[in-house]
Amino acid sequence: MAKISLLLLVVVIFASLQAYEAHRIGKFDEGLRKDLHNAEAMIEEDLKAKKTSIQGLKSEVKTLSKSEQTLKQLGNDYKKDTDEAPYGKKLKKFSRMVKVKEAIGKKKKAASVIQKILKDFGLNGGKE
């Protein structure tokens, strides 16, 4: 009788251990899925930021290439001693565009070190 009781105790312990491990693996899988989802969201957010940055750089390159062409034409006309007055309007336009882009870049509010740290940790105090 003692042998059977001991055998049943070992079987119950083994079954409970199996159930505990299965439950723990289920929680681990769930946590892994959450981490994977968070990683995908972060990658997607980073990708959107990169695309926006690329679009901004493309527009700047376009503006710079136009201004470069205008300046080359102005230089050629200056060498030929022709009238440079038609270029005044174009150069003012480029100057205005540069000033607007600088103003947009300066609008960012300087954040304190504490706010940056809180934002890095994802806490509420690090609002932008």
Helix-strand sequence? HHH
Percent helix:
over 70%
The total of helices stands at 3
Which sheet architecture does the biggest sheet show? none
The total of beta strands comes to: 0
- Compute the CA-based radius of gyration: 33 Å
The helix/strand class is: mainly alpha
Strand content: under 5%
- Morphology: rod-shaped
Q: List segments where confidence is low: pLDDT < 50 over at least 5 consecutive residues.
A: none
The mean pLDDT is 78
Terminal CA distance: 72 Å
Structure description:
With 128 residues, this protein is mostly helical. Helices cover 84% and strands 0% of the residues. The protein is built from 3 helices and no strands. α1 packs antiparallel against α2. The longest helix has 78 residues. It is rod-shaped and about 120 Å long. The model has no long low-confidence stretch (mean pLDDT 78).
Summary of the model, kept short:
This protein has helices at about 1-80, 85-105, 115-120. With about 130 residues, it is mostly helical. Helix 1 (about 1-80) packs antiparallel against helix 2.
Architecture blueprint of SSEs:
Blueprint: H1 2-79, H2 86-106, H3 113-120
Helix pairs in contact: 1-2
What key attributes describe this structure?
128 residues, 3 helices, rod-shaped
